Amino acid sequence: MLKPTILKLLNEQIALEDYSANLYLAMSSWCGHQKLSGSARFLEAHSDDEHSHMRKLFTYVNETGAMARIGALDEPPYEFGSINDVFEKTFEHEKFITAKINALVDACLEEKDYSTFNFLQWYVAEQHEEEHLFRSILDMIEIIGLDGRGLFLVDKEIGKMSNKV
């Protein structure tokens, strides 16, 4: 059975992963509205990926004999200034999620919950990949730029990444 501290943190992480899925879906909608179909497709796929992260946590909690809870979710933002703004906010959000996962891992060590610690190693590695992915998108935007055909090229390249999510 999970200790109350760990269960509380896992349920909070479930809600955060669910929020992430909604955030990326809202960003996908904004991109679609801006005629950025590659970015919309990428962010929709990323939303599905975040939802699967939530389900993985949900299943783990239930398999321990505890009860996973779905908390109330805040409405994600749905207005953005540019495609760069979308991916800046995405990168910042992923760094926030990394900090939350790291705090959860720390709590597992403090509570000597090595089973949950082991389970969370996948998330630690996943967050490294997520931060790298979004940093590379921001780097691409900086290198290519968004003037003239740059926006078209950036969107096209981001769309190609939807197969890698």
From TrEMBL:
Under the heading SUPFAM superfamilies, the entry gives: Ferritin-like
Domain Ferritin-like diiron, first and last residues per copy: 1-145
A GO BP term here is:
iron ion transport
Where, per UniProt, does this protein localize? Cytoplasm
- What would be an example GO MF term here? ferroxidase activity
Enzyme class, top EC level, equals oxidoreductase
Q: Name one Pfam family in it.
A: Ferritin
Cite the binding residues for Fe cation.
17, 50, 53, 94, 127
Question: Known EC number(s)?
Answer: 1.16.3.2
What keywords would UniProt list here? Answer: Cytoplasm, Iron, Iron storage, Metal-binding, Oxidoreductase
Its GO CC terms? cytosol
Q: What is its main location?
A: cytoplasm
Q: Which InterPro entries match?
A: Ferritin (IPR001519), Ferritin-like (IPR012347), Ferritin-like_diiron (IPR009040), Ferritin-like_SF (IPR009078), Ferritin_DPS_dom (IPR008331), Ferritin_prok (IPR041719)
Gene3D superfamilies with a match to the protein in the record: 1.20.1260.10
The family annotation for this protein states: Belongs to the ferritin family. Prokaryotic subfamily.
Q: What is this protein called?
A: Ferritin
Species this protein is from: Sulfuricurvum kujiense (strain ATCC BAA-921 / DSM 16994 / JCM 11577 / YK-1)
Q: Upper lineage ranks? A: Bacteria, Pseudomonadati, Campylobacterota, Epsilonproteobacteria, Campylobacterales
